[in-house]
Specification:
The complex is a heterodimer of chains A (244) and B (110).
Chain A lengths: L8 E10 L2 E10 L6 H12 L18 E4 L2 E4 L5 H5 L4 E4 L6 E3 L2 E2 L2 H9 L22 H8 L8 H5 L1 H5 L6 H11 L7 H7 L14 H5 L6 H20 L1
Parallel strand pairs in A: 1-5
Antiparallel strand pairs in A: 1-2, 3-4, 3-5, 6-7
Chain B lengths: L3 H30 L4 H8 L3 H29 L4 H27 L2
Helix pairs in contact in B: 1-3, 3-4
Classes of the chains: A alpha+beta (244), B mainly alpha (110).
Chain lengths: 244, 110
């Protein structure tokens, strides 16, 4: 952090409350040339109000635990520079949308991960440890498709950005569906049909309206909307195969 | 709200509607070009199995397509779920079907 600008300060609004409701509270924090939103939240918690609750772990954009709503948009706060999002405006920090708040900036991620399981996002190996290893061609179409979504860090930014989740709480959401699409294309996953059946239920991939917010806000640049489109296509083909 | 069956029903009904919409627009343009009277139009459509099938299928496809679309809107905006949503969806389907078929019968039944 630059010492030259230590004397500058900035106003920050932080949402404080719990599942029963809350409100924005204003804080004055030091303004540095280079600081992330997570730095600001940490400074408030360490220097001004120790009761502020938030969640983070790695601070380098790998663990996916520090996502919050920053000036109205879902972002990974550890890799979000304050200057780049405020553009001179006041900084406003709130918990992620579409998830129940536990306290302040920490949301309850249970339903987010339960939906991963519901979408059959759990890897089921096709062979056991004593079987010979199945070779996977990195250049194969399936592997390339699977690899497109493999770097998801489970931060729930896409889930929070999704207007379909907001309107339909049963919808599995972009992250779980992208995980499902990855497994459908993973040659080492036992049964793609089980996954396709899971995402064909009410609340599955067919509820997606292709708004594209998931893809726009994904901090690691993945394309969950494309994955959901892939699932729609695969389930449509399966629909005909079943009847053929 | 939408499972794969409803999704496919909506896509297939859209597929059916696409050529029928074009046919319908072509008929409308043709009918107004020469200034056909109501009696002349009815003279051609009444008793015609072809026009009955054309617009009968159109009405059926529209009823399926629109009922599923409105079902999603009702689910997302009115928060209807489960049995009430199913009843609502069928109500929209039968309303559109009955209104549409009534119109089809009126112009194709002799």
């Amino acid at each position: 952090m630059s010492a030259a600008t230590d004397s500058k300060s900035m106003e920050v609004s932080v949402w404080r409350g719990d599942a029963d409701g809350g409100e924005y509270r204003d804080y004055t924090v030091p303004a540095y040339d280079n600081q992330t939103v997570l730095d600001v939240v940490s400074w408030i918690q360490q220097q001004q109000d120790a009761t502020l609750t938030y969640r983070f772990a790695c601070r380098v954009g790998m663990c996916g635990s520090c996502a919050m709503t920053v000036n109205g948009k879902p972002r990974w706060t550890c890799r979000t520079h304050v200057n780049k999002v405020t553009r001179g405006e006041k900084l406003t920090i709130a918990p992620l949308r579409n998830l129940p708040v536990i306290k302040d900036l920490a949301t309850d991620m249970d339903e987010f991960f339960e939906k991963w399981v519901k979408a059959k996002g759990v890897h089921e190996p096709s062979t056991g440890r004593h079987d010979p290893m199945v070779p996977v061609d990195p250049a194969s179409k399936n592997r390339i498709t699977a690899s497109e979504g493999i770097e998801c860090i489970n931060c729930a930014v896409c889930y929070s950005a999704c207007d379909t989740v907001a309107a339909n709480p049963d919808y599995l959401g972009p992250a779980a569906l992208q995980r499902a699409w990855t497994l459908v294309n993973d040659e080492k996953n036992k049964d793609a049909n089980t996954v396709l059946d899971a995402v064909s239920q009410s609340g599955g991939c067919h509820s997606c309206h292709s708004h594209g917010s998931c893809t726009q806000y994904c901090p690691v640049g993945l394309n969950p909307m494309k994955a959901v489109a892939g699932l729609k296509r695969a389930t449509a083909f399966k629909f005909w195969r079943k009847r053929g | 709200m939408l499972d794969v069956r409803l999704y496919m029903a909506q896509r297939i009904s859209a597929l059916v509607m696409a050529p029928l919409v074009i046919g319908h627009i072509a008929v409308m343009i043709y009918a107004v070009q020469g200034g056909l009277t109501t009696a002349e139009i009815l003279g051609r459509t009444q008793g015609s199995i072809l026009w009955f099938l054309f617009y009968g299928l159109f009405v059926l496809a529209v009823s399926v397509h629109a009922a599923i679309g409105i079902r999603v809107i009702a689910g997302e905006w009115l928060k209807l779920r489960g049995f009430p949503l199913t009843v609502f969806s069928y109500a929209v389907f039968f309303l559109l079907l009955s209104l549409g078929l009534r119109a089809v019968m009126a112009v194709t039944w002799s």
